[in-house]
Amino acid sequence: MRIAGLASGLDIDSMVKELMAARRESANKYYYKRVTLEWQQEAYREISTKIVDFRNNKLASFNMSKELTAKKANVSGNETAVTVNSVDPTAAGTLNVKVNKVATVATKVFTYDPDNNDGTVNSTDGLTLGALGFSEPLTVNGKTITYDASDTLQTLADKINADPSIRATALYDKTKGQFSITSWDTGKGALVVTGFSTEFDESSSGEDAEIVVNGITYTSTSNKFSIGGIDFTIKAETGATDAVLSVVTDTDKIFNTIKSFVEEYNKLIETINGELNEERFRSYHPLTKEQEEEMSEKQIEMWEAKARSGLLRNDTILSKFVSDMRIATMAVYAENVKLGDKTHAKLSLAAIGITTGSWQERGKLVIDEEKLRAAIEDDPQLVANMFMKPGDASKPDNQGVGLFNKLSKYAFDALKELSEKAGTSMVSTDLKTAFLEDSLLSEEIRSYKRREEEWSAKLIDMENRLYKQFAAMEAAINKYNAQASSLMSFFN
After folding, report:
1. Over the stretch 415-457, which tens digit does the pLDDT of each residue have?
2. CATH class of the domain whose range is 105-204
3. Are the CB atoms for 320 and 411 separated by under 8 Å?
4. Where are the domains of the chain?
5. How confident is the model at residue 28 (pLDDT cuts 50, 70, 90)?
6. 125, exposed or middle or buried, with CB in 10 Å at 0-12, 13-18, 19+?
7. Radius of gyration of the chain (CA)
């Protein structure tokens, strides 16, 4: 504790505080710069995670997807007999499908004669398997059913139904004394049962499916077939009218895939442009704890919002990335290419209805839906190649390289530069990922921290010197007052 100002009557603490204020402000400039850089580093990380997500998740998914070369099969003739599940992009032509037999499940029904007991229909309900003569091992589809002589037909059914690996359903009807087992799978041999002491009421072994496709006969234990790149399921026998599967381009799926890509592209470029053009308020700096104590929570919130604004304004790395993306979307893919009834001297995305729009859009892509659909129908493979074709994407003017590969390359370059500058991850989308210690910003932040610590020690020394000087002044005043009192006493 310091006790000052008793002799002079001065408010020494206030005077020291005022004298230190200017010195503290000089020291605070390192705090302002350090915190601003930390905020900027966080802003870089937020943008970096979005670029990583776009490149490693969205773009990679689009580039590996078969939906840009999607085809579908239209069903005509007997439309109810066949359902198309999927069509491989390599499929082509027409399949004429005649269904002779639909695969069926197998069923075995066992009847336990109630007359062997007390003559009533319900007599088997409570009888044990031991009483019914069960003694051999029971198996269903190769799975052994463990049972006790005290088990009943109902508990046996429960045990079969509880094991999905058996792939069969058991049902017990106590009023008829009947026990049935039905396979989940279709085809011959789908149900194999041993060890049941019984007489058969009825039994079906299951049927294999049989179809004739373009003159060739195919059989299968299931009703699902994959022929000529078409995966389809038969539902019923065709009879006199066959089902006809015709492969065509799936324009809707291709269009919607491209539209989804454009939406993701626009979302990213809008976010980056927002950071590049956000207003910077240079008179607003990070608040110290002392400054926050003099403000309300709302004032602190509003102040910090302005202080954080525009930290990436006109950033060179992000500006270059946006420029590269725009160049890639406008680049020439091929020359002297015919699309529909028109030959394009220089074929770019604009030729299929995708442009960068007006300057206010700042590089966002705009789709002419009618033009894009027409291009897909005219030459779906060409459209797919404009997006997906692999090749050297190191230069934006390289022709014949798909847009996805170019954008992936430029995103990688941007992520690498961001990592070197701000220490952000090139692979993580986690906003809490630690920054790399060897980045430029990390080193600057450490440098400002060292200066803050140095100034903190200096300020303590300065404050102590001021108090010592005022203490010396107080001592001098006390001495003067004592001498003056002596003189007054002498003359009195």
Report:
1. 999 999 999 999 999 999 999 999 999 999 999 888 887 777 6
2. alpha beta
3. no
4. 12-66+254-277+313-440, 71-102+209-249, 105-204
5. confident
6. middle
7. 42
